[in-house]
């Protein structure tokens, strides 16, 4: 029961952080634009480190141990394999597009606003796109389709 609780909690923290960060960052951007967005960019990186990375690590670890506990072959169980694929796609988008955009956004208010604006646009579009495979993974874990 403890592993299952931690697994569900980590999924809530991961997906919740991604969605809530996207919402409040968009609100702040609309109010302030690139000027003064540096503090928000720092908060995004901090919450990504703690919640996105931390919850992802906990999610994968508890998932592997939980599958082992239940005697389920990880890649041989279709819904687990598809959930892992969804998480892998979201992680790839985060690593390849979102992190570099966040680093550029740290310059908000200190450098050319056009670079920061493009980075925020990329971060927003790809970030919301990355939510789709995450929600697909959650659905796979809950519905457990054949």
Major sheet size, sense and barrel closure? none
Low-confidence stretches: none
The global form is elongated
Q: What is the strand tally?
A: 0
Structural class label: mainly alpha
Mean pLDDT: 94
- Tell me the series of helices and strands, N- to C-terminal: HHHH
Number of domains: 1
Distance between the termini: 24 Å
Number of helices: 4
Rg calc: 17 Å
What percentage of amino acids are in beta strands? under 5%
- Regarding quaternary structure, how should these chains be classified? single chain
Helix content: over 70%
List keywords for this structure.
single chain, 146 residues, 84% helix
Structure characterization notes:
Helices cover 84% and strands 0% of the residues. By secondary structure, the chain is mainly α. The protein has one domain. α1 (2-32) runs antiparallel to α2, α2 (38-70) packs antiparallel against α3 and α3 (78-105) packs antiparallel against α4. The mean pLDDT is 94.
Write the layout of secondary structure elements.
Layout: H1 2-32, H2 38-70, H3 78-105, H4 113-143
Helix pairs in contact: 1-2, 1-4, 2-3, 3-4
Summarize the structure.
It contains 4 helices and no strands.
